[in-house]
Specification:
CATH architecture of the largest domain in chain C: Orthogonal Bundle
Largest sheet of chain C: none
Helix content of chain C: over 70%
CATH class of chain A: Mainly Alpha
Radius of gyration of chain C: 23 Å
Number of helices of chain C: 11
CATH architecture of chain A: Orthogonal Bundle
Distance between the termini of chain A: 70 Å
Helix content of chain A: 55-70%
Order of helices and strands of chain C: HHHHHHHHHHH
CATH superfamily of the largest domain in chain C: MetI-like
Number of strands of chain C: 0
CATH class of the largest domain in chain C: Mainly Alpha
Strand content of chain C: under 5%
CATH topology of chain A: MetI-like fold
Number of domains of chain C: 2
Structural class of chain C: mainly alpha
Radius of gyration of chain A: 27 Å
Distance between the termini of chain C: 39 Å
Oligomer: heterotrimer
Number of helices of chain A: 12
């Protein structure tokens, strides 16, 4: 007589695996994200890892030869300072400009028109802005003409093929980004909060200092990090609008040259790693400082 | 600005108006708030009550009229110079400050010395019974606790006037009742004039010394809760005060205090609240005032349509032969389709001009 | 009836408006400079050119083989849009509808390519593609450009999908629809506007994406922006006006798509890639 009680289902193993996966939230729907995840791993994580390993396998010398070369050759390690000299002030200036401007514009009736206009430099991209500035800021360009006409200077100001050209390009392409981010943070603050402060005796300046600023700092820190990382990666502007041989020889140029002029992929990877590391250090420092401040929700209650 | 002890004679609103883009959100509000009075601004949403409150606070500029604090005109001052205390609908507690810092914010803005400020914060925290929560952030408190912090913050500055914008609307029913008592208790203890905005009729009637009923930006009636309850001046207010039975009829006789109104399905005697010009009148009767009784003259015949048990009695509806649905109360459970004869005392049947029942 | 502002406040506000105005003036200035120059016969030492012509556009078209370049650009951009939607939308669906072990890690994985600037990961990526003999090919360019756009689509679509009531899908199932039909009859119609928006944003960003294409393209797989760069780079040899003509063609391309995109999306969505949660 066959028993009709099945002590255990005939296919115990696969069933329990599926159960276990379901318990962890994995089912056929979750698997939908696998192709994208695999893609990112293959084309983002893997190259990074590959590059990291490659950087320790120079053509000649020991594992750290690339890094040693980088930090002993002024032509190479100066690029960090050069890029910092460009990226940091540009980002700081953008943040300093964006905050008061976003603050003032937040109730503006034509705000959408303004943001549309400001999105244009981002859309056009760095190459076009660089080309435009070459003409506009050149010795014969309109800006110099205007300055001479207004009597502010007697000879054209040198704004292209040097530091200033690249600096201005950075400001023009970065400012809209920082501005839009800051604006979104400001509008995310419950409007009843400054009103409450007003009824308690705080004028606009004190409302800013005691209500807006503390609530904005976490967002501003994030904005700073994103903007700085972008600025530090400046590339086409530094070549087209700057002096890539010297004053605006930024670290991305060094990496590019190593890869495509010297065909030393190991060195190029090393430089890319160093570039990433510097960005990481700054970001971690800023975000670390951010933890000292309030980071919770920006509403004023359970309303 | 205010007298040194933080009290004042009165606040006067004269023809206060505010319009925007051609729409008048508030029109010709005339109100005098005496010292220590608790005034409720009552009305459905969009009636202008929040607008009025924001105008008093200075958060909205007036487009007409003026506001006076005793003999000083204040409607041109920004909110930070008016010195009123305000409790916002969603509390608007500063999320990055502790309870104590929130409460003490107004004192800090006025430069009150630290030791005095701490003492006053202590007193305020005690008053709202939040002693154990002083160092917490608003995000760590429940809705009711946040609301009490908002109240403490508004009163610690000892303002001549406290403004409250529907402070209870975000709380659940039970908590709302408790907080209602709290608010009245605090008001009695501190004696500060209060203007309280709400759309809840029960709240207004139970809390206020006087109620201002608003609709579509205009004042419909100002009076004590008893006045509004028993003697609404216009049909609007009656409707808002819970006079659920409202219907038209033809005036068929009587004069002065007692007028008879007739329809195909009923005949009733009521008290006019306004001049009945056109020969037709709108009748308003509270469900509580309409009860089943004996057949005969003055009774409205109908057939029971629904019965609901509401604790002490039954809330029922009956349909008349003319298709009118009447809400009434009964002490015993009625059967569906049972015939009833509804009666109401003439002084509890209010008559208004028929044009009001548009 | 506005309350009277104090004088310092008024001065401050005016200063801000002046700064905004100055920025906008210079922005238009640089764009106009390119435009005017592209139509100029000769332009030396004067406010405006000596004369106007359109010949530079034709010259640029020939010289830079713009018909080819535009074709390549279109192919690359189209492929990137379609593929990033194909990969990104299902992933966004999974992220929106499921809580699973390791979700935070996966979310981080998808956010990273948007935080790291293209040139930083572009160089290692180009190296890998070179090893795979994909460098310099259209495939390589498409793959490289997909790296930031797949996560972008995911980030844009996930909140969009979260907004769709999951009970709609449940209702469809109760009434007999299998997954495919749920997708076809419920999800795609509701997601269409979001996908359109995401697709347009990807399009605009990819047309302007310089670094990735620059590092991975060969002479026959350059997009318009890369070709523009090379022409500027070699500008000493070529007439500046024809370079500017090409720049105008590039600008027209990007701006046309920008304004189309703006009919469907808010300008801020082009930029704010990170949700301001914590």
């Amino acid at each position: 007589m066959t028993s009709h009680v099945e002590a255990s289902p005939p296919r115990a193993e696969p069933a329990s695996l599926r159960r276990r996966m379901a318990a962890a939230g994995w089912d056929r729907t979750t698997l939908l994200m696998v192709p994208a995840a695999v893609f990112v791993v293959l084309l983002f994580i893997y190259p990074f890892a590959y590059g990291l390993v490659l950087s320790f396998q120079p053509a000649k010398g020991g594992a750290f030869a690339n890094y040693a070369t980088f930090f002993s050759d002024p032509y190479l390690y100066d690029t960090i300072a050069t890029t910092m000299r460009l990226g940091l002030p540009a980002t700081v200036l953008n943040m300093l400009l964006a905050l008061p401007i976003a603050f003032q514009v937040r109730h503006f009736r034509w705000q959408r028109v303004l943001t549309t206009i400001l999105v244009i430099p981002i859309t056009l991209g760095t190459v076009l802005v660089a080309q435009g500035l070459l003409t506009y800021l050149g010795p014969q360009g309109w800006l110099n003409r205007a300055l001479i006409e207004l009597g502010l200077t007697s000879t054209p100001v040198r704004l292209t093929h040097n530091y200033w050209g690249v600096f201005l390009a950075l400001v023009i392409t970065e400012f809209p980004f920082v501005f839009l981010l800051t604006l979104s943070y400001i509008t995310g603050i419950d409007p009843a909060l400054p009103q409450a402060a007003a009824t308690l005796g705080a004028g606009p300046a004190r409302q800013f200092r005691y209500v807006f600023l503390p609530l904005l700092i976490p967002g501003l820190a994030v904005a700073f990090c994103l903007a700085f990382v972008q600025a530090f990666s400046v590339f086409p502007s530094a070549i087209l609008l700057g002096a890539p041989a010297g004053p605006t020889r930024v670290i991305s140029i060094a990496a590019y040259q190593a890869a495509f002029e010297q065909y030393d992929y190991s060195m190029a990877s090393a430089i890319a790693m160093i570039m990433g590391a510097v960005q990481l250090v700054v970001v971690v420092a800023v975000l670390g400082a951010r933890t000292l401040f309030y980071r919770g929700p920006m509403g004023g209650g359970k309303g | 600005m205010a007298r040194a002890d933080g009290t004042f004679g009165e606040i006067r609103l004269e023809r206060v108006s505010r319009g925007f883009d051609g729409v008048m959100a508030l029109q010709d509000l005339d109100l005098t708030i005496r010292r220590g009075e608790f005034i409720a601004l009552l009305g459905p949403s969009g009636c202008g009550k929040s607008t009025a409150l924001n105008c008093i606070a200075g958060l909205l500029p007036l487009t007409g009229g003026s506001i006076w604090l005793d003999d000083r005109r204040i409607d041109e001052l920004p909110p930070e110079r008016r010195g009123f205390g305000m409790v916002f609908q969603n509390y608007a507690l500063f999320p990055h400050m502790t309870v104590r810092r929130n409460i003490g914010f107004g004192l800090a803005m006025r430069g009150v010395p630290r030791s005095e400020a701490e003492a006053r914060i202590d007193a305020a925290v005690r008053l709202v019974q939040l002693e154990a929560h002083g160092s917490k952030l608003p995000g760590q408190l429940s809705g009711g606790q946040q609301q009490r912090v908002a109240i403490a913050r508004a009163i610690v500055v000892q303002p001549p006037l406290v403004l409250m914008d529907e402070p209870l609307s975000n709380l659940d029913a039970r908590l709302r009742l408790d907080m209602r008592h709290e608010i009245r208790r605090i008001h009695n203890e501190l004696g500060r004039s209060t203007v309280y905005v709400t759309h809840d009729q029960d709240e207004a009637l139970s809390l206020a010394d006087r109620v201002v009923v608003l609709r579509d930006g205009r004042v419909r009636q100002i009076g004590t809760p008893e006045d509004l309850y028993a003697r609404p001046a216009v049909l609007d207010v009656a409707r808002f005060m819970g006079y659920r039975n409202i219907f038209d009829g033809a005036v068929s006789g009587g004069d002065g205090d007692r007028v008879t109104v007739e329809r195909d399905d009923l005949r009733i005697v009521g008290t006019p609240r306004a001049a009945l010009g056109s020969g037709r009148a709108a009748v308003a009767i509270r469900p509580e005032d309409l009860v089943p009784g004996e057949d005969g003259a003055g009774a409205i015949p109908g057939v029971v349509e629904s019965v609901e048990f509401v604790g002490r009695e039954y809330a029922a509806t009956a349909l008349t032969s003319g298709g009118l649905l009447l809400h009434f109360r009964s002490h015993r459970r009625l059967n569906l389709d049972e015939p009833v004869h509804l009666r109401a005392a003439p002084e509890r049947v209010l008559l208004f001009g028929a044009e009001e029942n548009a | 009836m506005r309350r009277v502002e104090s004088l310092p406040t008024k001065l401050w506000h005016s200063l801000i408006w002046l700064t905004i105005g100055f920025f906008l003036v210079n922005l238009f200035g640089l764009i106009a400079a390119v435009g005017v120059n592209s139509f100029a016969t000769r332009w030396l030492g004067t406010w405006l050119p000596a004369g106007y012509t359109t010949r530079w556009y034709f010259a640029a078209w020939e010289e830079f083989q713009l018909s080819n370049v535009l074709l390549v650009t279109m192919e690359v951009v189209l492929a990137v849009v379609v593929l990033s939607l194909l990969l990104g939308v299902p992933a966004a669906y999974a992220l929106a509808r499921r809580e699973f072990a390791g979700k935070r890690l996966v979310t981080l994985l998808f956010v990273l390519p948007l935080l790291v600037p293209p040139i930083t990961y572009g160089i290692p990526l180009a190296t890998v593609l070179y090893q795979l003999h994909l460098a310099g090919t259209m495939t390589g360019v498409i793959l490289a450009n997909l790296v930031p756009t797949v996560p972008f689509v995911i980030l844009v679509m996930t909140p969009f999908i979260e907004q769709i009531d999951p009970r709609l899908e449940a209702a469809a199932r109760v009434f007999g629809a299998n997954t495919f039909r749920v997708f076809l009859h419920v999800l795609v119609p509701l997601l269409a506007p979001g996908m359109l928006a995401a697709g347009l944003l990807v399009l605009v960003r990819t047309v302007a994406m310089f670094e990735l294409t620059f590092l991975t393209a060969g002479p026959s797989s350059q997009t318009l922006v890369v070709a523009l760069y090379y022409s500027v780079f070699a500008a000493g040899v070529r007439a500046g006006q024809s370079v500017d003509a090409m720049a105008m063609i590039y600008m027209a391309t990007t701006l046309v798509w920008l304004f189309i995109a703006l009919r469907f999306v808010d300008p801020t969505q082009l930029v704010t890639r990170v949700k301001k949660t914590s």
